[in-house]
Amino acid sequence: MTRELPQRVSDRIRDIVGERGILTDPADTAPYLSDWRGAYKGKAALVVRPASTAEVSGVLALCYQEGIPVVTQGGNTGLCGGSMPDASGRQIVLSLNRLNRIRNIDAANDTLVAEAGCILADVQNAAREVGRLFPLSMGSEGSCTIGGNLATNAGGIAVLRYGNMRDLTLGIEVVLPDGRIWDGLRGLRKDNTGYDLKHLFIGSEGSLGVITAAVLKLYPLPTEKAVAFAALPSPEAAIELFKHLRSLCGPRLTGFELMSRMSLDFVLRHMAGCTDPMAEPHPWYLLIELTDSSPTANLRELIETGLMGPLEDGQVLDAVIAADEAQAAALWKLREGISEAQNFEGPSIKHDISVPVSSIPGFIDKASAALSKEIPGIRLVCYGHVGDGNLHFNLSKPLDSENADFRAQAGRIGRVVYDVVAQFTGSISAEHGLGQSKRQDIVRYKSDLELELMRSIKGLLDPKAIMNPGKVLPD
């Protein structure tokens, strides 16, 4: 593992982090050198696991001095290869999974200070123990980390009500590439004293520095919930229902998840314990969740009222409302099982895009038509967070095609999808980041000035370009 590093450098790193902070055995390092899907693999000169911000500072200062590239890694649950080293074996993987303390909870200020290696589910539980909610929620919450959530500006299923990671973060602590520590851990909701530097690092995928801790916003813990599953004739009907329920329910509308019939078919076919809530199939579905912290909110009555008119006029074809928590969980399982279920159908090409909410129907129609013309028989697995315009526009291979042939067309297929996204002034990455998979694509969709400004920021903060090279910025 260390043959690409001078022995004196390896020894100095060991002095900084101790024996527990270095991994060299191939069996120990293997999980850090392949992403969870096996889609990206790399080699590393060393896997380093600091246990404090001071140790991160010491390692980065040494790497900066020696010109050693550093790839920061959290839970390694990303989808774009952003936390993988390259194949050179000269980069260091800096894993923050030992930096996992919750430093402080201030219930009166509704804030929690978590280190970057904290598992998201552990942060949710810590907030719940003091009667508060940390609302970031996603399928990987049992293994993804706060640092990774910050690095990719994670979204998840509750962005509609609470926002993404930028909205949930008041302050951060960052180790700069040269080892200096910026302490921006301020739990203030008003601080108008110049540039808001934290937003440079949130969403930067470890390319500007290492976020080691954050002040996170907490909210009242919901005590009431209502979940409904509705069948619709079209995405246009979904947008009309969204406008209607948003006006009726206000901030209680927490989740509004769209899924195509093919998405549901895959789940019913491959995920154990899942059953169709409807008596007959329909083209599109919505999973709707209302939450409130008032015990007298009467959310079930509210969602029944909200669905009554659309059912009568045909905007909603059918609907079921969960009678209890078990039924609510069963309905959510239909939505959360889509990504895993698609894997059973052979190779898939995934796109994490966003467009204005009003443009969702037009995007789906235009992109679907373009893809069907380009690759007859391609299977569309479209689902996502309608309330914030984020769709997971995933594609499974035609039934009569070869796996290798389909994979080889990923670049061409991506161009078709992203060109349609651009026509609707959207983004080719809504919540997964750019990593190494999309960094070259942004040349086509960002202006020269925007790329110049991004490179200028990178050059200012990381002049030796040691932080996560080969990610985010195009060549």
Written account of the structure:
- This protein is an alpha+beta fold.
- The chain has helices spanning 7-17, 26-29, 53-66, 120-129, 146-151, 159-162, 198-201, 235-249, 261-270, 299-313, 325-336, 338-343, 360-374, 403-408, 410-423, 442-445, 448-461, and strands spanning 22-23, 46-48, 70-73, 92-95, 102-106, 111-115, 132-133, 169-175, 181-184, 210-217, 219-220, 224-232, 253-260, 284-292, 318-321, 348-349, 352-354, 379-385, 390-396.
- The protein has 17 helices and 19 strands.
- The strands form four sheets. Strands 12, 13, 14, 15, 16, 17, 18 and 19 form an eight-stranded antiparallel beta sheet that branches. A five-stranded antiparallel beta sheet has the order 5-6-10-8-9. Strands 1-2-4-3 form a four-stranded mixed beta sheet.
- A hairpin with a 4-residue loop joins β5 (102-106) and β6.
Describe the structure in brief.
The chain is of the alpha+beta class.
Shape: globular
Low-confidence stretches: none
How many distinct beta strands? Answer: 19
Strand content is 15-25%
Main beta-sheet annotation? 8 strands, antiparallel
